[in-house]
Amino acid sequence: MTIQDEQLPDISTGLLALIVRDVSLAVKRPGDVLNPLFFFAMVAALFPLVIGPGTEQLQSIGPGVLWVAALLATLLSLNSLFLSDHEDGSLEQMLVSPVPLAALALGKSAAHWLSSGLPLVLVSPVIAMTYQLSLSVTGVLMLTLLLGTISLSLLGSVGAALTVGLHRGTALLSLLILPLAMPVLIFGARTVSLVAAGDGVAGGLYFLGAYVLLMLSIAPFATAAALRISNE
Amino acid sequence: MWKFLHRLASPPHFYRIAINLIPWFAMPGLLLLAYGTYAGLFVAPADYQQGDAFRIIYVHVPAAYLSMMAYMIMAVSAGIGLIWRMKLAHAVAAAVAPLGASFTFLALATGSIWGRPMWGTWWEWGDPRLTSELVLLFLYFGYMALRNSIDDTSKADRASAVLAMVGAVNVPIIHFSVEWWSSLHQGSTLVRKGGPAMDAAMLYPLLAMIFGFTLVFGALLLRRLRAEVLFRERRKRWVRDLILSGNGKR
Amino acid sequence: MGPYGLYVWSCFALTAIVLVICEWRARTRHRHVYRDIEVRVKALGDTE
After folding, report:
1. Interface-testing mutation among C6, C24, C29, with chain B (most B C-beta atoms within 10 A)
2. Is residue B119 part of a domain?
3. Do B103 and C23 count as a contact with CB atoms less than 8 A apart?
4. How far apart are CA B39 and CA C46, in angstroms?
5. What are B2-45's pLDDT values in tens digits?
6. Residue B141 covered by a domain
7. Could you tell me the pTM of the whole model?
8. How many domains would you assign to chain B?
9. What sign does the CA torsion over B227, B233, B238, B242 have?
10. ipTM of the predicted assembly exceeds 0.95
């Protein structure tokens, strides 16, 4: 057996190419990026309508509502993570590609975060403003959403890979991911609430950061395994 | 020992051995449950704080312990099945999931009934153990839903194995995060179930119940696993021979 | 058992019910699987 060094592709090149492709695809179809954002805004707008416009009430439920809305919006966009790749056959190309599948899975997660998580973080201050959250609370909210959506993109890619090509995959994906996303949701929302109550934020942010690292080390491999299984 | 385990891992042998193995789990298990129930209900003194309501722990604690144990068994055997491609391991994961969900439901229901006289409500979000049991129940539902939605058995085995392993990493984190979350609730000073210094007359029935539950769980698992193995091997020659010979109907 | 009797007894009864259901479901599943295979094997045996 000969070692074919020159044929080993550069992992980072393959990864970058995938991210660029996915993000530019998302830009070409702005609906894919905008729909979850509208969904996020609408879910957040429902709560004041059913609960009442009291400032204090809004401030106390605000962090939780925004976090739940962000989680649901992320789930909505996760559903199509591997769908178009599955339909046009590029997923099979990824499976036989010389670049390790886990690296490609990481690239898919990164592209998903860039086209859904990051816009969500950027839009959140506007929604937070309507909930009368103060500037410092909004800052922490953005920080927790930033870390949390990275985790959700990684964790969600496992669920999306497991359910790709299945009937009724959407409902199934939510059923698989929601309980697993509980820690992110709890720490994200509670950290913001704690800041609003005048407490420290370090603990919650450390946890969210640690969770990102954990997901970074697990999710790409689990996603790769799941993709191989669901694409035979 | 290794030879015995190796033989046990082969489906035909397992199928034949299991039916003889079940009574060895079920009999002592039921005896322990009978003793534990009698001693727990009539012999153990009432708790000075909770009165007789504390007797619910005799079924609640074993159910809660087994609900987590079952998830661990599921994740470990799913991992063994995925890595070493062991057929029986996947069958174990498939058979244990509904049992785990049943025991999780039991732990939730008895915890809720215990909460009614203790907290005055059927459900208390401030209790971290009940809340993480609820999340565990959702995890079981997700696992079983994924399994049911894939027709091909081998594919369902491996896909659900990935989920079980990712879930197993998350279970302790979920527990920890729910605990952290409820510790922030002010004024939720909950009555501790049991407590560290337990009277021997209270403790022995509990230990008997825990061991009894575990043994009965083992018997139930073996019985489920037998049906699962038979189903998975339905096209194999040994199953055909078994059916034609008329043995193994039980 | 005092005022808590109903709660305690219903918990033990529920436990018994869940255990019995688990056992019963395992048995019926085995019976169904066995019968299905039996029907198929016998049918194949006739055509042979």
Report:
1. C29
2. yes
3. no
4. 58
5. 666 676 678 888 888 888 899 999 999 999 999 999 988 888 77
6. yes
7. 0.90
8. 1
9. positive
10. no
